[in-house]
Amino acid sequence: MKLGRLCPVGVKLFDEEKKLNKWFYEKKGLTDTEWKTTIKMIGNVAPVRGIPGRSKDGYQCRHCSTETETLAHVLGSCPHGSLLRNTRHHTIRSIIAKELQKVGMETREEIHCIRNNGSTARVDILAWNATSKKGYILDPTVRFESSVEQPTEVDEEKKSIYEPTISYFKEKFHLNEIKVHGLLIGSQGTIPRLVANFLRQLGLTSNALEEIAITAVKGSCRILNNHLQNHIAL
């Protein structure tokens, strides 16, 4: 069975890295409740108001009332889940940074910098090889899966944002080369081939990639459950 056949086009990204999907079939790292919630998310039947016939109170988000309450809105933009979304992102960022340290790379997280035009920015991860002086600006981004082109679109978006900071980091850390990579992690547990192959090149193992996928989906389960069970906006 291919997970991508169960649901909207974005989750076809599951089919790109089948070996990383075993957490889903084995319920690895998930409680029974989380696994059931994951099935509902992937099958696009999570009980959000945007599903026709689901709610008698209309389609608007029960917390912010500014958008239709779709799963994408709940997991990606509703202010009610902002703290949990930050936790999901920060946990994944730290997993990647720690794995890079294991293969001998120097890393810094949440590091402030200055763009070529003088404006300030903050990058998620700066990683470099102390011997070759080759570095990477990495920006892991958790988003609701929308298309098979999304990984490339995210990578290009992050390059446009952070390439103007390369000169700053070269000078500050005495590096010869720095490349920017936007790393799309799907909110429903997908790791696209583009991202998986790049992280493997840096030395991350399949176990580490699997941990990232599980962390993403567990975080999304918490966001969804918090949204559905709490009717008073934080």
Characterise the protein shown here.
The chain has 234 residues and is an alpha+beta fold. It has a domain at 86-217: Trna Endonuclease, Chain: A, domain 1 (3-Layer(aba) Sandwich), CATH 3.40.1350. It is built from 8 helices and 4 strands; from the N terminus they run ααααβββααβαα. The protein has a 4-stranded mixed beta sheet, with helices on both faces.
Topology at a glance:
Layout: H1 22-26, H2 32-42, H3 71-76, H4 82-102, E1 106-114, E2 120-129, E3 134-143, H5 150-162, H6 166-173, E4 177-186, H7 193-202, H8 206-229
Parallel strand pairs: 3-4
Antiparallel strand pairs: 1-2, 2-3
Helix pairs in contact: 4-8
Write down how many β-strands occur, each being a DSSP E stretch of 2 or more residues.
Answer: 4
State the strand order across the main sheet.
1-2-3-4
Detail the poorly predicted runs: 1-6
String of helices and strands: HHHHEEEHHEHH
Shape: globular
Number of DSSP helical runs: 8
CATH fold call of the domain at 86-217: Trna Endonuclease, Chain: A, domain 1
Which percent band covers the strand fraction?
Answer: 15-25%
Task: Report the sheet with the most strands, covering strand number, pairing sense and barrel closure.
Answer: 4 strands, mixed
Oligomer category: single chain
Give a brief outline of the structure.
By secondary structure, the protein is an alpha+beta fold. It has helices spanning 22-26, 32-42, 71-76, 82-102, 150-162, 166-173, 193-202, 206-229, and strands at residues 106-114, 120-129, 134-143, 177-186.
